[in-house]
Specification:
The complex is a heterodimer. By secondary structure, chain A is of the alpha/beta class. Chain A is about 30% helix and about 15% strand. Classes of the chains: A alpha/beta, B alpha+beta.
Chain lengths: ~290, ~350
Amino acid sequence: MKDKKVVVTRRDFIRGTVGATLGFTLMGPEWLKGTFEERSRSSVVIVRDQKAMDKALNVDKKILEKMLEQVLIHVTGRSSMKEAWLSLVAPEDVIGLVPTPLMNPTHDELIEVVKNSLISAGIPAENIRNAQGRSVDLELITALISLPGLKAHWLTGIGTVIKNYILYSGAPRNYHYQDSTKLGEIWHLPQVKGKTRLILVDALHPVCDKGPQVDPRYRWAYNGLIAGTDPVAVDAVGLKIIQTKREELRGEPWPLSPPPICIEAADKVYKLGNSDLSNIDIQTIGWDQDLLI
Amino acid sequence: MISKKGLILLFFFLFMGLFFPLSQGETRVMQSDKINLPATIDGWKLTKPPKMIDKTNIFDYMNGAGELYLSYHFDHLLVYEYKNKSDNDILVELYYMNDSKDAFGLLSLDWGGEAVELNQPQAEKPSESIVPRKRALYGKGLLRVWSDNLYIRIMAFRDTPGVKEVILQLGKIITADRRNPPPPEMLKAIQPFMDSPWTLKRDRTAYFYSYLVLNSLFYLSHENILYLDHSTEAVIATFEREIKSEKKPPVRLLVIKYPDHEKAVKALNNFFKFYLPDQNKEVKPDLKQENQGFFHIEDGWMGHRLINRGLALVFECPDQESAQEIINQALLNKFQKKGRRIQ
């Protein structure tokens, strides 16, 4: 029975049995059992400002700083950016920032604003590092802040939060196609597990079609940041925005293809968080036109 | 015994082999490499010599996107970058593929955008083709071009006034004096009926070889259940119909040409095994008989037809009659004799 090959097909999606099929194939790992907390509800914050980018797509850093402050305050429930950061990280932490390097890369301005605000909160500059890539020594890093760009992906459906650590696996090609269901296991690697303190998605200028390379026709100025501490919930909210935008563009159903099974697997198999939008509280702050939620 | 005509042909091929030792694809690539881009164009300056990407470093350049180009017989890529005084960038990517049909396939993945004329004739008369008559498409700062074995992407990172003109000029320079072969013969395997209530959506037809590409167009399975690879060719087409001015959901027709009947049978049986496990079907190789069937599944009626090394599959039909009508538009008998008709 164990060796029987189970293949996920279109029919599983139509029947709504993907979870069951994936559960059957992937629930095996013994190391997962008892290693997670049950989550009841998750919270995701969306902050938008219509002027975050101008018409030429130049980012206004002052506005971005304000957006970051709002997002941090609402994610943590603290009263200032400093307090918010210090509730997530400590001055002695070695903090790894994990931006998206390719295809809709994270804006440099966002990385800079995050870094500067951490320094202002009392984190020594030398303790803040770029932690994206295969060669990063994760042993030294005690806290990760994931900063992916919001985008669809041609091999995995979506390529935002859960996929952002793919290079930590050392073998990214092993996590494409059907194996994209296993992206969640990277979050359980000993050098990664439990280190992520915040997921902050750069949704200033997302990409809603899979690519594989950026096509400007499928980018739009959403001018937003999406954040939370539950990576699956943040990914699920980003997915909803992308899917809604696709249907708006085509004026007809235009599902992501291949379907983004990594999000459901991250929830159902790897227990990393909530993928079901009905279990996610979404707070929206600022510009509310075309929220797509 | 070799006839006189045979001897003449033998000497001809020996001569060709001695004086033109490269394969056809390699020869074209060498010719195409002679493209000289201007050092400056309307205030935009070429920043440095082109970056050369090949199969060994394509994943470093574009991560998983490399799979797409490898699936279309990628040879190499040259990347140029222009900058202007405002520090805006134009990226010029020249993808050298083995064959014109590979570059065509890349363009066929998305027929959206504004059709622009560079130095190229229209692809084919509309009535004779199942794809739009387009070779170059522009949209929001990105130009995509099929030019013989070259697939071109020229993209401005910021779509500022005047940038489109510069991009089109570059497109004209690159495509000047290049051949413009017709679309792949494989497209002729679908011939829409003129009197059918179903209308072919030409701008949704795509040509490809890989199941990864199929999944990006129409998801079937994360596994390669149809055994698509570089030895196969495939076309997917979309049909729609209107009833009382109301558009009905589209129907997909997938046509695959396998290298031989055995591989086509093996693929169909694997499809039955994983996609239609409830049907318990298996086909035996038989060159003389066609094999056809229709099934009602969760998303409507689907059907298959196997003739020799050609396989057609139709999906999401509202009824069996529609499935039959659509699958009849796949001319699989064109694949019957290797060496003739569609190759």
